[in-house]
């Protein structure tokens, strides 16, 4: 059986068929028990009552005389066949007035000869007709002298029971047919949404990430459709980011490579006769090579973060050393670009458990971004302070700012927003990862046209215990 629809129909149908068959069996048993029980009970009542009458008022009669007495006093409306048997089971007289001589050894007769009321439902030994027979013992003085046997045909009862059972079977067949039709509808309602999901997944497998699954019902499959559509939307976004990243990185790689190739060919064709031009070309090649190295390092860092291989060498350090080095590194650039670089660092140590090189990488990246987006004559300020066992370092520029729509995604991987500046779109994402590895947080606040503030929040390192303090403790 292939497909959920087929399995649902078959399993549901088989279960209902089994239930109907069990109910039909119980119904047939109940009807059979009622009809035969009622008939048997009525026959037992008449037989017992009449036998008690005979045994009480004809107690001095011998069996043959008692047989004639019985037939003379039997009701004319009696529909059961009455037989009087001797102790050997031989019929000595029946209600038709015949002495058939037939010997009956059915269980009811044997029970009656033991003094009990015997009941037998089965076939007549002579006619093979299905009968109900009730036998009661006849007494002569204090001994059992024979058996009084009432017999009725069970064929009308069987016909009535079978007729009712046939009606029940018809109703059961109707129920099974209705159940199969209902299972078809239920299976369709269950399977159709799954088929929609399958079609949407197939389209996604072929690269169509705009495919969506319809949510037909507010159930588990509907929730699955919503989740699938959310996943498709995220994959679509990631696909767009990937394409943007490939385009951006290709552009970032091509630009310096073009400069390097151009100056290399110029130097080769022109020889080294003009020292100034040669020096200019070498400086450009060196500068563009640095750009390529920086880009490759960002990609390697990103790969390490993705694979979980990034390791930090944490040590207790003074964050002022990092900020002083960064200030020194960007001092010449601020003069060249005529951007006012201001540093407000407290005189007391800013203790932190950190990786010097990685924290250096973070603040170099933040300052590099600030210089990229701050125009000539602008201001970049770096402030650091300790508050409530946290180190708060802010890098604020008076640059072009970030669009409000880009702000929630600016620390995402490969996200460049509406910026036209060069870059892989990984810088802030890597900074955020490094800060979070240090147990800190990174926030970005910006107003378009006014500037941007990036805040780094790091935990203060616990004080180192000295031998003296340990002794005091």
Automatic annotation (TrEMBL):
<dbReference type="InterPro" id="IPR003661">
    <property type="entry name" value="HisK_dim/P_dom"/>
</dbReference>
<dbReference type="Pfam" id="PF00672">
    <property type="entry name" value="HAMP"/>
</dbReference>
<feature type="transmembrane region" description="Helical">
    <location>
        <begin position="164"/>
        <end position="187"/>
    </location>
</feature>
<dbReference type="InterPro" id="IPR003660">
    <property type="entry name" value="HAMP_dom"/>
</dbReference>
<keyword id="KW-0418">Kinase</keyword>
<keyword id="KW-0902">Two-component regulatory system</keyword>
<feature type="transmembrane region" description="Helical">
    <location>
        <begin position="9"/>
        <end position="31"/>
    </location>
</feature>
<keyword id="KW-0547">Nucleotide-binding</keyword>
<keyword id="KW-1003">Cell membrane</keyword>
<protein>
    <recommendedName>
        <fullName>histidine kinase</fullName>
        <ecNumber>2.7.13.3</ecNumber>
    </recommendedName>
</protein>
<dbReference type="Pfam" id="PF02518">
    <property type="entry name" value="HATPase_c"/>
</dbReference>
<dbReference type="InterPro" id="IPR036890">
    <property type="entry name" value="HATPase_C_sf"/>
</dbReference>
<dbReference type="InterPro" id="IPR003594">
    <property type="entry name" value="HATPase_dom"/>
</dbReference>
<dbReference type="InterPro" id="IPR050398">
    <property type="entry name" value="HssS/ArlS-like"/>
</dbReference>
<feature type="domain" description="HAMP">
    <location>
        <begin position="188"/>
        <end position="240"/>
    </location>
</feature>
<feature type="domain" description="Histidine kinase">
    <location>
        <begin position="248"/>
        <end position="462"/>
    </location>
</feature>
<dbReference type="InterPro" id="IPR036097">
    <property type="entry name" value="HisK_dim/P_sf"/>
</dbReference>
<keyword id="KW-0812">Transmembrane</keyword>
<keyword id="KW-0472">Membrane</keyword>
<keyword id="KW-0597">Phosphoprotein</keyword>
<keyword id="KW-1133">Transmembrane helix</keyword>
<dbReference type="InterPro" id="IPR029151">
    <property type="entry name" value="Sensor-like_sf"/>
</dbReference>
<dbReference type="InterPro" id="IPR004358">
    <property type="entry name" value="Sig_transdc_His_kin-like_C"/>
</dbReference>
<dbReference type="Pfam" id="PF00512">
    <property type="entry name" value="HisKA"/>
</dbReference>
<keyword id="KW-0067">ATP-binding</keyword>
<keyword id="KW-0808">Transferase</keyword>
<dbReference type="InterPro" id="IPR005467">
    <property type="entry name" value="His_kinase_dom"/>
</dbReference>
């Amino acid at each position: 059986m292939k497909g959920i629809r087929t399995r649902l129909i078959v399993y549901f149908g088989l279960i209902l068929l089994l239930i109907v068959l069990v109910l039909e069996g119980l119904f047939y048993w109940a009807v059979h028990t009622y009809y035969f029980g009622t008939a048997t009970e009525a026959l037992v009542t008449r037989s017992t009552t009449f036998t008690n009458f005979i045994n009480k008022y004809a107690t001095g009669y011998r069996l043959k005389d008692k047989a004639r007495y019985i037939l003379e006093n039997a009701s004319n409306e009696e529909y059961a066949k009455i037989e009087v048997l001797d102790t050997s089971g031989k019929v000595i007289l029946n209600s038709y007035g015949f002495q058939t001589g037939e010997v009956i050894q059915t269980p009811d007769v044997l029970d009656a000869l033991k003094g009990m009321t015997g009941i037998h439902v089965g076939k007549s030994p002579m006619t093979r007709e299905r009968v109900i027979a009730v036998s009661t013992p006849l007494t002569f003085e204090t001994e059992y002298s024979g058996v009084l046997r009432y017999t009725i045909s069970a064929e009308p009862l069987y016909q009535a029971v079978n007729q009712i059972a046939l009606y029940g079977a018809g109703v059961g067949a109707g129920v099974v047919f209705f159940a199969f039709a209902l299972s078809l509808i239920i299976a369709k309602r269950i399977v159709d949404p799954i088929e929609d999901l399958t079609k949407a997944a197939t389209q996604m497998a072929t690269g169509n990430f705009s495919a969506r699954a319809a949510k037909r019902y507010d159930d588990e499959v509907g929730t699955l459709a919503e989740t699938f559509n959310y996943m498709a939307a995220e994959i679509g976004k990631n696909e767009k980011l990937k394409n943007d990243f490939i385009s951006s990185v290709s552009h970032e790689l091509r630009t310096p490579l073009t400069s390097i190739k151009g100056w290399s060919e110029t130097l080769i064709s022109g020889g080294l006769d003009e020292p100034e031009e040669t020096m200019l070309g070498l400086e450009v090649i060196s500068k563009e090579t640095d750009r390529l190295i920086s880009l490759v390092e960002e990609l390697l860092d990103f790969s390490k973060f993705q694979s979980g291989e990034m390791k930090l060498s944490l040590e207790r350090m003074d964050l002022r050393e990092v900020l002083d080095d960064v200030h020194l590194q960007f001092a010449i650039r601020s003069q060249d670009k005529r951007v006012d670089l201001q540093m407000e660092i407290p005189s007391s140590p800013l203790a932190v458990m950190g990786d010097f090189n990685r924290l250096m990488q973070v603040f170099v990246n933040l300052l590099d971004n600030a210089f990229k987006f701050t125009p000539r004559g602008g201001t970049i300020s770096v402030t650091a302070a300790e508050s409530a066992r946290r180190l708060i370092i802010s890098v604020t520029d008076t640059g072009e700012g970030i669009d409000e729509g880009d702000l929630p995604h600016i620390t995402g991987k490969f996200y460049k927003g509406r910026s036209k500046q060069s870059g892989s779109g990984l810088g802030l994402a890597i900074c955020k990862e490094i800060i979070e590895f240090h147990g800190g947080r990174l926030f970005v606040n910006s107003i378009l046209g006014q500037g941007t503030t990036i805040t780094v929040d790091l935990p203060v390192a616990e004080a180192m215990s000295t031998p003296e303090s340990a002794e005091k403790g």
